[in-house]
Each structure stands twice: as structure tokens, then as C-alpha cells.
């Protein structure tokens, strides 16, 4: 699988130009919610640190305080080079932060996200500069039982099957450097019976004139199929035929726990014949076995 990079947080859509921001951040409790007035949007006082992506409730985060604090702050500095910024967009990704997350970069308010379980992204291009940059994150949580909370308790003590709450950043934070026109996301749906895979791409583009999207499918370094289409809008759908009778007796390599065959797929974005963006991914043509029979999972997405 070509798209595997150790610790890469988005293994099904991989670009090489990224930076992991896990590790030590300045950290502060703000039980009285006075951090904004105290100027913490410019940086959190270096009184206490936390190890992201672990929360303050965990020992792994370096704090291990299980009591309830409904407002917490984080900050850290990152160095950016001229090469990283030159004609690039800078995206800041949060894989998970619970529950209301507000972001400032170099004192500039970037935005806010509500929700504890979904990945989200901020475009921070307009706020960053060469050399040192300060990232500040404020997260508010609550004990409101109407807030989606899984098995997190909404009282101050554990009970039944509800356990210690999770507050703040709880999954990887990372930066990605992309061109101004780029592929923002991809969904792949294999159809084993037909030997095809449907690809749905989302594009971020300032102008669609001259843009084209290409997908190249390979297996064990052998090209199976490829297709290129003009990109006239921000959503593109392609259907790729991966059946090749010279490869196997059935034309496709099926995925199963015993034989976990995966196809590599590379997505490319072209502008007037110049390659400007690419990302690697993979998919499997799934099958399952019930009572000794192969059951084809037609149309089941593989993630």
C-alpha cells in the first residue's frame, strides 16, 4: 500500500507535505472564562503544559485531573519556511476536539467548530507568516446531557456505564500545505460484481478553467486503469473499470481477511497540462463468506 505513512492521520488520502503538531502545548484552565479579556488569544501563559492529543483528564496528557473544567486553552508556536508558504494554502486539521473549538493564529480569529466527534479544518493561509507563528485554541465543554457525549458522564462522578468526561483536543492536530487549487476530499465506492469503483471528488478552486482530474489505479506497481476528465465544477464523479482478465481468472483482486488485497489509487489535478496536486489512496474489492458461500458486497464503500 503506497499511501501508508507512519502516524499519518488521514491514511486514505495522503499528501507528503504535512506537519504533525502533536506533542507539548501550553495549557490553562479557564473556569471563570476570562481568557479572552486576559489576552490569551495571543498566547497562553507558560505555567502548565499538556501532551496533545491526550486530554487533561488522562495521565498520558501529563496532567491527570479528572475533575470538570468547562473551558480550557492551548497554545504553541510553529515555524514555517518560505518554501512551505510560497503559493500555498495552509490548512490546520483537527481530527477531534470536544466540544466547541475556537481558533486564533497570531492573534487573528480564524473560526469556530461545534461538535466533539467529527474531523474539521481551518484555512489559516491569511494569518500565517514566515518564521514563528502562534496557534491558540480555546475549547468549551459542558455537562449538558443533550450534548452528544457517548459514554461521557454528565455528573461529577462515574455511574453505571458512564465514565470520566473527555474535554478538549483528543485526536491529532496537523498542518497541510496545498496549492490554491486542490482536491479537498474523495469518496470511493467499489462495485465488486461489475468490477468497477465509483470515485467522487471535491475540489477547491479559484477558477475551473483549464483544470482536469485524473485517477490512476494500480496493483503491486502495475497500472490497472486510468482516466482523466475536465473539471468544470467543484464536484466530479468518475467510474473506473478495474476488471483485467490478464491479472486474475475473475478479473479483479478481491479483499478478504485471509487475502487483504488492496488497490492503490493516485488522484492528480492538472492545470493547463501542469500537475499541481496529487494524493494517494487505496480501496479493496470486498467479499465475505457466510456458510461457505461468497457474498458480494455490491456498492459497499470501503474506508
Short description:
By secondary structure, this protein is mostly beta strands. It has one helix at residues 82-85, and strands at 18-20, 23-29, 48-52, 71-80, 89-94, 97-98, 100-105, 108-114, 120-123, 131-140, 168-169, 173-178, 182-191, 196-204, 211-219, 222-230, 235-241, 254-255, 263-271, 274-283, 285-290, 293-296. It folds into two domains: 18-178, Galactose-binding domain-like (Jelly Rolls), CATH 2.60.120; 182-296, Immunoglobulin-like (Sandwich).
Main features:
2 domains, Immunoglobulin-like, Jelly Rolls, mainly beta, 1 helix, disordered C terminus, 303 residues, four-stranded antiparallel sheet
Q: Can you tell me the CATH architecture of the largest domain?
A: Sandwich
Total beta-strand segments: 22
Instruction: Label the structural class.
Output: mainly beta
Shape: globular
Enumerate the strands of the largest sheet in spatial order, edge to edge or round the barrel.
Answer: 3-2-4-10-7-8
Largest sheet: 6 strands, antiparallel
Radius of gyration: 23 Å
Could you give the order of the helices and strands? EEEEHEEEEEEEEEEEEEEEEEE
Helix content: under 10%
| Cα-to-Cα separation, first versus last residue | 14 Å
The helix tally amounts to 1
Mean pLDDT: 92
Domain count:
2
The CATH homologous superfamily name of the largest domain equals Galactose-binding domain-like
| CATH-assigned fold name of the largest domain | Jelly Rolls
CATH class of the largest domain: Mainly Beta
**Residue windows where pLDDT falls under 50 for at least 5 positions:** 298-303
Range of strand content = over 45%
